Every structure is written in C-alpha cells, then in structure tokens.
Amino acid sequence: MRATKTGKRLASIFLLAAMVLMLLAGCGKSEPTEKKGETDPAPKQTEKASESAGQKEKDEGKKGQTAPAAALRAAIDAANTGMQSSQDNMAFDEEYIYFVANHDRYRCRYDGSDVQKLEKKLENVNMAEGKLWGYWQHTGYQEPGAVYSMDPKTCAMTMVTEMPFAGQDANRIQVSGNWLCYTRDKGNELIVRDLAAGTEKVIFAYAFGDLLRSVESCCIYGNTLYALIRDTSKDFNCVLCACELGAADIMTRLSQTMPLHGETAPIWMEDGLLLTEEQFGGETQYYYAKFADIDVENKKWEFKEDKNKIGVVGDSYTINNKGYSRYVLGNDLLMIDGMRIHYYAGFDYQKDQILEEDIQGYRNGIEMCHGIHDGSVYVCLEKSSSEAEILKISEGGTVERFSVALPEA
User: What is the torsion angle, in degrees rounded to the nearest 10, for the CA atoms of residue 284, residue 267, residue 172 and residue 386?
Assistant: First the structure.
C-alpha cells in the first residue's frame, strides 16, 4: 500500500480486536470446539464452528443474549453469505427471508407464507441496524446505480449513496452502527461511509505498482473492519488488513502474503477465519486462523499448525473451486456446486452426503440464491414462474422444505 501506519496504530487496532474477543467471552461464548472437560482437542477434530450462527442461544431460549454478540453474529453471517453467494444472496430478519427468484427480489415468512415482491430488486443485500441494505441498478445501465436502505415495516426504500458512474456495482455491503462499508470497481476500491454525517472515504484503492490489488471479502467486528485483500500475483494470494472505523482513513496490513488457493475458500468465524493451504499431491487442508495469533509487529500469522487443522485433507479442486459455495454448520461443511448440495460431516470429504441433486436446472452453484441464518443454510430453488421452493438445511444435514407461491407480476 502507498502508506503505512505506525506501530501504535497497529497495536491499537489489534487491541480493539482483542477487546471484541473479550466481549464475546463475557457473553458466555467459548472456543468453538470447547466442551466441558475438554482442554486440548485432538488434531484434525473439527471445531464447533457454528456458534456464530447463534445455535447455543437458540437452544437456551436465547437467554442472556446481548446486543453486541447478536450483532456480531449477524455481521459474520452476512459476510459469509456475501462471500459464498452471488449478488442474488439472501438476507434475513426475525420475520422474513429476503430472496431472489425469477429475476425479482421477494420476501416471505419462514414457513413460505405472506410472499411479497419488493419494489426494487436489491442486490448484495445485508440486513443490519433494523434495515435491509442493498445495491440497485437502473434498467438499461444508462444511469448510475446506488445503495439503498429499506424499512422492513413499510418497505419504503431510501437512496443512501450513488455510484460515481453507470455500470459500477456496490458489493460486499456491510453495516455497523453509523458505518456503511462496501466495495466497487470489482473490489479495487473499499469505501467507508459515515451514515450520520453523510460523508464517505475511500480507505483502500488499487494503485499501479502496488502489491495489493482487490478486496476479496470483508467483515466488521465491533468497530473494526477486517478485509482479505488479493495481491497482484496469479496464485490467489491474500493479505489480511484492518481499519478502525472512525479513527483511520486507510487499511493497515496485519499479515504477510498468504497463498489461499481459491476465491471462495475463506470462511469468517467469531475470532478468526477458516483458511485453506494446499498440500503436496493436489490436496488441501482447512485451518482455523485466529486473530489472537497474529504477530502484528512482524506481520506474521503462523496458523498452519496441527492444533488448527479442521477435518482432513481433501481434493484441492473440490475445496478451492471458485464456482462452489460453502458454509460451516457445527462441525460440518455444506457445499453447493453446479449440480448438487453436498454435506461433509466433520469436514471429511470421503463422507459425501448428497442433500439435493440436479440443481443445475435452477442456477449454477454460486449463482443460486442462498445464505446462512441462525445456524441453518437456506437455498432457493426456482420451480416455475409462479413457484419456488426454499430448503432449510440444519446441522447434521437435516433438510426441511417449503413451497413459496410467487405473486403474479
């Protein structure tokens, strides 16, 4: 990058990340794999990864849940949904699922009833701070598109910020408090907007000759925005960067270049990310890379240790294929490719449970409408111009189905 921060700035950002983790601990959260009586999980034992989806609070009637913890889980789910899906991703609130079918944006209750077509087909949606946020482009692309917010009670939409010119999308939309974060120009720019002041800054922009090229994914943890930024190589290398919202005007590098070998393999977790490392022989291993293990001063992140291994090694093409979508459910991995929905218990790729076949007639893998909410993955299958089916897939591979009658145009 063209500018670097001082050690104090790096320390302050990392300290803030540590405070977020302490907050989670204060909310009764434990290590993903931690169970009573267990202090040293065996290598390759998959960590309890879906705590971020709120399953623990669901089982306990959500007693003791605090707003910061709930907001953090929602942000992580939104980041994973945006990472694993196309612009037609799902969003969720307490009452509705927001989905795309037949090139329109709808919402319905969790049993498939009360289906409503929204005024605008918002893309790259995110439910945060009590509103639905998304990008909408004018028909014909003759005018600039814009980020809108929608009031779920009235469905009234308000333009928040307009793109500089026609044909430029807003992607990876994240909202926390007064801050709206999004990328444009295919990830070559990362923008932070102060919603209260109505001003925004470009905190990362690709510059010719610079190492860092484009934002692959980002997620807000409390008041800190983390981003995986692709470098200029052809090997899918990324660097982890961070920005303290409201206190910094540029992303600060926290790690060295990491060869991730895939565009959709990283998965955001409550205290780090699931990252992959290609092994000899064409196989790939998942690791749990925790923010707490970052050596900020030396920009080192030594996460590739036996204790951080998740599941077993698998075929690199399957695990890192950029056309596949993947979500973590408890100890397991759900994957959507161009034809099927797979479920791998314990991240064991030899135990391939097929949950749904022949989905290529609906959409192709990552282009399908899907997302994760409250510990379950939802997938929309288009049946006809007047009917869709939504699958709810829970931990263990349990599938529930409900039909959705689409209103006539």
Answer: 90
